[in-house]
Each structure stands twice: as structure tokens, then as C-alpha cells.
Amino acid sequence: METPKPPTIALIGTGGTIASTAADPAAMTDYAVTEPVSAILDAVPEINALADVQYCQPFNVDSRCIDDKMLLKLARRVDGILADPAVDAAVITHGTDTLEETAYFLNLVLKSRKAVVMTGAMRPASARSADGPLNLYHAMLVAAEPDAAGRGVMVVMNDGIHAARHVCKTHTSSVQAFSSQEHGCLGGIVNGKPRFFNTPAARHTLATDFALAGVKALPWVDVIYDHQSAGPHLFQASIAAGAQGIVLAGTGNGSMSPAAEKGLRLAARKGLACVRSSRVGAGAVSASASDARLGLISAGSLNPQKARILLKLALTVTRDRERIQWYFDHC
Ligand SMILES: NC(=O)C[C@H](N)C(=O)O
């Protein structure tokens, strides 16, 4: 019997700690992005037995530096790669600090059923027990698994397979830095094999209204963090700077300090789309009876940084409050 041809997987390097080195093997901070994606791949020769890999490097930066232009460039590049019938799946290496933002953005705009798996590392490539090589190998295992297709963008870190919709960075430095909170993982790597237990319920990839054709720039959306004794000046500054939306990192279940309520009311009156999210880190912000009267949108279980991504994309399609609320309820 002929052995089946291994899948062709596109590896797209964007930087992050997985591509970084520090002064010595004990150093876990104070590193810099130095490694091209080819070097990250060469460090894991076991991948050769899994897949034919074609790599590219749209940019190579720490993920705190990623801006809208880079996000659009990456999304267009990945969409183009996935449209190639010769490519079966894609793996993207990325810094972990803003990984959840890029993952959710791609989850909403890529128009493909093919598996897209993102991964990174918490320890630099030069570290004594670097986690990047195993994370990359696991990401390739998941991308090569036929059952991975149709689940949207996934994040593979430290043996877990997470849905882009739910995954958040919840630790500053541990290798167990990512969690899908109460929603749970999609699955995990068990004894060298990917196992899926869940499938994402929210709309993604082919089932969203969002596409990048014709989008030259993304609308500007600010996140404003609420707290005791807040002032209205950040809202005023955001409106004056020309923002098209504001996401409030509100207290508790998206509740607002008096200044935040005043600031959001003003912003909504000026035509900005205003979303109530929460700074708590778990649970959903539920719709409130006053949202329609105040012109506000509730973020559900999206944290502020992910609510910002969805609001930016929603504003490429509509400014209608109810339609935007629908996106927050379904995407
Ligand atoms: N662990 C990491 O990847 C953090 C890094 N500073 C980044 O996000 O690019």
C-alpha cells in the first residue's frame, strides 16, 4: 500500500518570544526578536516527518508592536495562502502578549475552512527549557489533523487547543499562560495526538459578515479602563481625537462609574459606537435595560481587547447599534 502524501502546511512567522533570544540560558526576560521563522522551524526536525512546510515572514516583531496595518497585511497574506489548493492548513507563530487579538481578528475575517493554528512561547528560544519548539510541534500536529478543519482559528499552547473566540492570556510569565476560562478548551494534545472535545459555537471564518476586500484601514476604537473616582477627560479626548468607537473596561458586570456613564452618553450622542465590557476577566457582561436608552452595546463574554477587535470590524459594515449588538451576541 502506498503511504499517503503528508499535508502541505504554510508556516507564517510574525515574531514574539518564540523568535527571541536572551543573553544566557537562564534569562527569561530582557530578550529581543532575533530569529527568522526558518530558524524556529530548523530547531524542530521532527516536523519534517509530519508535513511539507512552506514558510514566509510578513514581519518579525514583538507582538506589542503589531498595529492595524500589520494585522491587515497578515490577514490578507494568510487568506491568499489558504486559497491555494496546494496548501492544506496554516500555522502562525506570534508573540503571546497580543496573540488573542490577532487570533480573534483572523477568526472573524479569514474565508476558509482550512485549519489555522497559532502558537508562541513564554520562554525565549535561548532558554534552558524553551517551550517554543514543543508548542510549534504541537501546532503542526493539530494543523495536520483532518478533524481540525472547520473549527476557526485555534491557539495551541502548553498542550491545550483553544478557540480564538475564548482564549485569553491570563498569566504574565508562566508557560501555562493561556486559558479559555469557563468556556473550556477545544481539546488538547494527549500523548502526542491531538484530541478534540468541543467545537466553537460562535460564528467564525466563512460564517461571518466580515471580509477585507475593499477595507483600506480599520476604524479607530479606544479602550477606556474604569475605576473609582474616574474623570470624563479620557472620553472627551477620545471623541476629540476622532475615534469611531469606545470600549469601556467597566467594573463588575459592565457597570459604569458616574464619569464613565457621562462619557459614554456623550460619545454615543456624538455618533461613536460604545460597548460595555468588563475588567473582571471572567464571565459575561449581560444586556441592561438601559443600554438602548443610553445607546450602548453589551460585550457578552468578550474581554475589552477582544471587544475592540469585534467593534472595529463591525464598524466596517454598519453603524447601527442593534446590528452591532447582534454581532456581539453571535460572533
Ligand atoms: N511571550 C511573548 O511572546 C511575549 C512577547 N513580548 C510578545 O508578545 O511578543
From TrEMBL:
Residues 9-200 form the L-asparaginase N-terminal domain. This is Asparaginase. It holds the Pfam family Asparaginase. GO terms for molecular function: asparaginase activity. The lineage of its organism: Bacteria, Pseudomonadati, Pseudomonadota, Betaproteobacteria, Burkholderiales. Residues 221-328 form the Asparaginase/glutaminase C-terminal domain. The keyword Chaperone does not apply. PANTHER family: 60 KDA LYSOPHOSPHOLIPASE, L-ASPARAGINASE. Signal peptide: none annotated. CDD domains: L-asparaginase_II. The active site is at T17, T96. Keywords: Hydrolase. The keyword Membrane does not apply. Substrate binds at S63, T96, D97. Belongs to the asparaginase 1 family. One of its GO terms (biological process) is asparagine metabolic process. Gene3D superfamilies: 3.40.50.40, L-asparaginase, N-terminal domain (3.40.50.1170).
